[in-house]
């Protein structure tokens, strides 16, 4: 008897599901077709972006690029969606080509590939779809007129946060945690090291790599080892792995609020990530962040392309001059001395007095 | 007769229930299930390009599924398909880079290298199980991690000089096919799809039509009875893991020589080996079942990429649908019981 009731209840649930499913479908379908038909013949300039596996909410460059697209969309009265601006997320490395093709098929006038991992896919798809325009962020695709490359002078921004670290370290020992060792991450490490040494030649810079951009637990372990070995400031260039560095710093702060330990954020202003409350008192372990304005660059290239000035086949390198890289607007934890020094070195880099290295000294 | 019918009914009903439950979740979360599934279908089979991508995605799934199914028929749980796939991927790319040979030798050699590497990775847990009775689940899981880190080390420091990806394999070792690309509008479909079908036929033939296959299955049914009947159980355990590993290794070669044409540093598992377990389960551990289940998984994975842009439904939802399908297959007892009830009612 019990069993029969259960069976009956289950079939009722399923039947209800089928009916509800059919209802929901019918209702909204009308809206969809309405929206679709209106936009088919529009002459708006549409843009799309394909993320790497980090996803659009990675609190790092994918998210920043998306913010740039949103700003571009707002400026030009575009709507989010296939007829305005939209993103496509990749869930594995095999998805890049499929997603780029989906973007092309959808008819975006310009498609961004976010991150150096998309380089081979963009190269291949751009050769096949010669009528579409592409842009790659963080890497260089050469010899194709329908691809423009956007890179940043991360070493310059990293130099500035290095200056801050060199001046504000109490232990004369600072750490660097990179994601995967590569030419790109070497730029962060090299600039940071040079910045520290420029203002504090005696300081020790420990450079380590986590081997992944999405392993917060690994980042936490490495940060724990670095802090206990005497480093008091850690600069991370490790995407999601870096979130572990923040967790470690925050938990140390929670155990002992008098301890002076800091994290330097990357890509975006990460002041938000460093907030910690101990006994009702607020602290922030984020010393400063090296901000890479992927959003500005994405918006800039989209605007150029819209005006028919698509820089195809060219490499645009965004540095300190165009605010492509800078130190974060949140400067609560900086001393007056550091602020002045940052200004001084910014000028020196801008007028070419200082050439910032793009690899760490050991290489 | 009735038994055969339920064998087919359980996976089919599980898939339907999974899709239905997915529709319910879409509805509850304020999305439109019809639009969502339309987008899924369009993204998987909407035109020749997407069909090509689906078949491309299906290829390694077939191999991973066959690997799991083959071991399972001998009563072994090969959780190490992921690791065997990675070493196979590496070995095939390495051979594809290192030698300069005519295509007719080079391509088979590269694929065989993948098979050999996968087989070697399967041999270790098989040997430990046969000799020391170490449980293969533990060993294979551990060896997944070993494979991940060893392959990463080889890519960075042995094959390349500190780079995070190898060079593309030589043209003579590539599975990529201009013909398949031209009929599927530049999808990344490659010749590996033929190999996947051939592999499924080989597995079916080996298990069902040869003495070796009979012995392997017998060991799977009952080790003690097989031993009593004079079969060498230990030899069969090792052999089963080796063959299973070889299937997985070729699956890796499909990625290395076909889909990507190189290998890169993996920060985590590709997931294909683990999905292979689900494919084998859904396919009832039979060759034809694995091929069909792999097609379904390929379609779901590729089609899901199209869902957010076309219908606004988050593609994570497909992961939920997949999980539910697995859940329903795993609880197949529930479905057979329900079918039994229906049957009884009809009889009344």
Overview of the structural elements:
The complex is a heterodimer of chains A (about 375) and B (about 350). Chain A is an alpha/beta fold and about 375 residues long. Chain A folds into two domains: about 110 residues, Response regulator (Rossmann fold), CATH 3.40.50.2300; about 160 residues, Rossmann fold. In chain A, about 45% of the residues lie in helices and about 20% in strands. Chain A is built from ten helices and 14 strands. A six-stranded parallel β-sheet of chain A has the order 2-1-3-4-5-13, with helices on both faces. Chain A has a six-stranded mixed β-sheet with strand order 7-6-8-9-12-14, with helices on both faces. In chain A, strand 10 and strand 11 form a beta hairpin. In chain A, helix 7 packs across helix 8. Chain A is globular. About 5% of the residues of chain A have low confidence. Chain B has a domain of about 240 residues. Chain B contains 15 helices and no strands. Chain B is globular and about 70 Å long. Chain B starts with a helix and ends with a helix. In chain B, about 55% of the residues are buried. Chains A and B meet through helix 1, helix 3 and helix 4 of A and helix 1, helix 2, helix 3 and helix 13 of B.
Task: Output the keywords.
heterodimer, A: 363 residues, alpha/beta, Rossmann fold, 2 domains, six-stranded parallel beta sheet, six-stranded mixed beta sheet, 10 helices, 19% strand, B: 348 residues, mainly alpha, 15 helices, 78% helix
How are the elements arranged and paired?
The complex is a heterodimer of chains A (363) and B (348).
Chain A: H1 2-40, E1 47-50, H2 61-75, E2 85-88, H3 95-106, E3 110-114, H4 119-128, E4 133-137, E5 147-152, H5 154-168, E6 173-178, H6 183-199, E7 204-209, H7 216-228, E8 233-237, H8 241-255, E9 262-267, E10 275-278, E11 281-284, E12 286-292, H9 294-306, E13 315-318, E14 325-327, H10 336-350
Parallel strand pairs in A: 1-2, 1-3, 3-4, 4-5, 5-13, 6-7, 6-8, 8-9, 9-12
Antiparallel strand pairs in A: 10-11, 12-14
Helix pairs in contact in A: 2-9, 3-4, 5-6, 5-10, 7-8
Chain B: H1 2-28, H2 33-45, H3 48-73, H4 81-98, H5 103-132, H6 136-159, H7 178-183, H8 192-209, H9 211-221, H10 223-228, H11 233-259, H12 272-282, H13 287-311, H14 316-330, H15 332-347
Helix pairs in contact in B: 1-2, 1-14, 1-15, 2-3, 2-13, 3-8, 3-11, 3-12, 3-13, 4-5, 4-6, 4-11, 4-12, 5-6, 5-11, 8-9, 8-13, 9-11, 12-13, 13-14
